[in-house]
Amino acid sequence: MEENKDLLEKMRKHCKLKEKDLVFKQNPKPALTFVQLKDSLSEVGHIMEEDIEKQIFVVLIMSGIANMNPAVVSVQLSESILWFAGYAKEGLIKQHTAEKAIAKIEEVLDKKWD
């Protein structure tokens, strides 16, 4: 998918990743604007990059057990769908940090914009 290609490009720019550990997800958000998305992302983590042309944000979010593991999440607003790509370096015990970081974003969006 074209969205995943753009998100993957952004992820490679911000972290040394193992592509097999990337997490992709999509979520329909028909009434969400780019500004509303930015506001919500800034509540959850630190925005590292904003690409207005491609409608992509790259965010650093503390997640995992006790919010001690950093995750990098790229988020793209394309028409009425949010596309996510998440990555976090996992140790021997998998904490599903990237999935939890994406869930944090979705939780904030659901509270504010649904």
Structural class: alpha+beta
Enumerate the spans where pLDDT stays under 50 for 5 or more consecutive residues.
none
Oligomer: single chain
Q: State the total count of DSSP E strands.
A: 5
Report the C-alpha radius of gyration, rounded: 13 Å
Beta-strand proportion: 25-35%
From the N-terminal CA to the C-terminal CA, the straight-line distance is: 27 Å
Mean pLDDT: 88
What is the molecular shape?
globular
Estimate the helix proportion, in percent: 25-40%
Main sheet overview:
5 strands, antiparallel
- Spatial order of the strands forming the largest sheet: 1-5-4-3-2
SSE string, helices as H and strands as E: HEHEEEEH
Number of helices: 3
Write the layout of secondary structure elements.
Layout: H1 2-14, E1 23-28, H2 34-44, E2 46-51, E3 56-63, E4 69-78, E5 81-87, H3 97-113
Antiparallel strand pairs: 1-5, 2-3, 3-4, 4-5
Helix pairs in contact: 2-3
